[in-house]
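User: I'm new to structure prediction. If I give you an amino acid sequence, what do you actually give back? Let's try with this one:
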Amino acid sequence: MSEHSASSETVGKEAAGESSRSIVRLALIVAGGAFLFCFSLVPLYRIACEQLFGIKLGGAATEVRAAAMDTSRTVIVEFDAGVHSGLPWSFRPEKAQVAVHPGEVVDALYFARNDGDLAIVGQAVPSVAPNDASQYFNKTECFCFTEQTLEAGEERPMPVRFVVDPDLPAEVTRLTLSYTFYKNDLATQRLVSGQLAAAH
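Assistant: Good question. You get back a string of structure tokens that encode the predicted 3D arrangement of the chain. For your 200 residues, that looks like this:
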């Protein structure tokens, strides 16, 4: 082998090695970005609920406020349930409405059922109407805080605990708590892939 050929071969190997290292670096950057994006979804969801939908996501402060119940007033809270067309689920509230005192801790139930043939991951998005009063509706526990996985044919109760703030304006006597379930395509794909891998 000539010196020129050996030199060319060495340069080719170095170029191939550098190309492989570049691909590995790019893959690590993409994986790191994906991890950070997923990690940021929880605080982004909290911001969306509190800023866009005007729904406070509970905590110790809400429990303290619950002690100051205003028994002189009653507010009707209606429950509404919807499912996006891409999700083959049934979804309904246990009751159409309840009468509550501002400051009272209230537990309510929704029920979700997977009417499809495969396991599916869903995510509920809440809203409160009227919008200008939604800041006075505080959820301390909710199925909407996390992804919900239902096997084919499975039905599950979905609890929510809330408090209507005693500072709710006196002219507001009725609130509507609505949820819409959407299919989480990425989480469903991961779930199905994991189940297929476990079966083989």
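You can read the tokens as a compact description of the fold. Here is one thing that stands out. The CA atoms of residues 44 and 50 lie 10 Å apart.
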